[in-house]
Specification:
Layout: H1 2-12, H2 17-37, H3 48-60, H4 65-84, H5 111-119, H6 126-142, H7 146-150, E1 157-158, E2 163-167, E3 173-177, H8 180-196, H9 216-227, H10 238-251, H11 256-263, H12 268-272, H13 275-289
Antiparallel strand pairs: 1-2, 2-3
Helix pairs in contact: 1-2, 6-8, 6-10, 10-13
């Protein structure tokens, strides 16, 4: 039934490829544990005691709580699937609780450094330099995810309306507005790309030097190269620019539900992590200005 479950989350639930691989790995690890410790018991026959025993073993092996919680989430999805398929009659996850984790605040580039990054850095001449600049401009100017950037098609960009259509997680589509300054960056990129790069048969906006579609490692490398210029940024990844986009919008007074929709979050809880930085700014203003502070 594990194979059926994987097909279900891949094709019906439309989980991301990364999540599908993670769930496959987690279930394989669980089955290996059962085979070794409990005489070949298969996952669908495990009870609460066996599940709890595996979780305890993970903790004893010093696996971090976030990773353990992901494995718990995997098993919850798996046993709910088995219940719906009437393969089992009792959910062994009913009494399993997630582990406590420290709340991690998102890393972000401050506004002054962002302005320098986008307006004063020398990206070099030609297509490659303009592409690198556009990658950073799009990640910060729209808050899109790495996978969304790579899959961005030329037809998804409306320069007249200044909007970009993005296909997010689980094939959810959203439209993101962008600023006037980004229009000229996109136009110049397309001009240089069409002039310097051999056209290949694919619909994607951003390409490598030989005209192939971008790939994750390349984008990560480009973003890290330029974020290295700012020592204040602890983490250097495309997601840091997404965090910066959300944090700066909230700092400027954007309504949190609007930011939720722009980011493509399914719940407000995912967006609320960015309000910490805004709250710190509000507290500072209160301490400086309020008579009773």
């Amino acid at each position: 039934m594990v194979e059926s479950f994987i097909r279900y989350i891949q094709f019906e639930k439309r989980y991301s490829p990364k999540t599908v691989i993670s769930y496959q790995t987690d279930l394989k690890q669980f089955e290996n544990f059962l085979e070794k410790e409990y005489d070949g018991t298969i996952a669908q026959d495990a009870n609460y005691g066996l599940v709890r025993s595996w979780i305890v073993s993970l903790v004893e092996d010093k696996l971090d709580n976030l990773s353990v919680n992901r494995k718990i989430a995997c098993l919850r999805s798996y046993y709910k699937f088995l219940l719906r398929q009437e393969i089992i009659t009792k959910d062994p996850m009913m009494k399993i609780k997630i582990l406590k984790t420290k709340k991690k605040l998102p890393h972000f580039v401050n506004e002054s450094d962002t302005a320098i990054l986008l307006d004063n850095v020398n990206y070099g001449q030609g297509h490659a330099g303009q592409r690198d600049k556009l990658i950073l401009e799009l990640l910060y100017g729209t808050g899109m995810r790495l996978a969304e950037l790579i899959s961005l098609k030329e037809e998804d960009v409306n320069l007249h309306a200044r909007t970009i259509r993005v296909l997010g997680k689980r094939n959810k589509e959203r439209v993101i507005p962008f600023g006037e300054s980004l229009v000229e960056v996109i136009k110049e990129y397309k001009r240089l790309r069409n002039k310097e790069v051999s056209k290949q048969e694919h619909p994607y906006l951003l390409v490598t030097d030989d005209g192939s579609p971008l790939y994750p490692m390349m984008v990560n490398r480009i973003v890290k190269k330029y974020l290295k210029l700012f020592t204040s940024v602890e983490k250097k990844s495309p997601h840091v620019l997404r965090h910066s986009y959300a944090t700066h919008l909230l700092n400027k007074g954007a309504e949190i539900n609007a930011v939720k929709d722009l980011l493509g979050h399914s719940s407000l809880a995912a967006t609320q992590v960015y309000t910490h930085n805004s709250m710190e700014k509000l507290k500072k203003a209160f301490d400086q200005a309020h008579p009773k502070a």
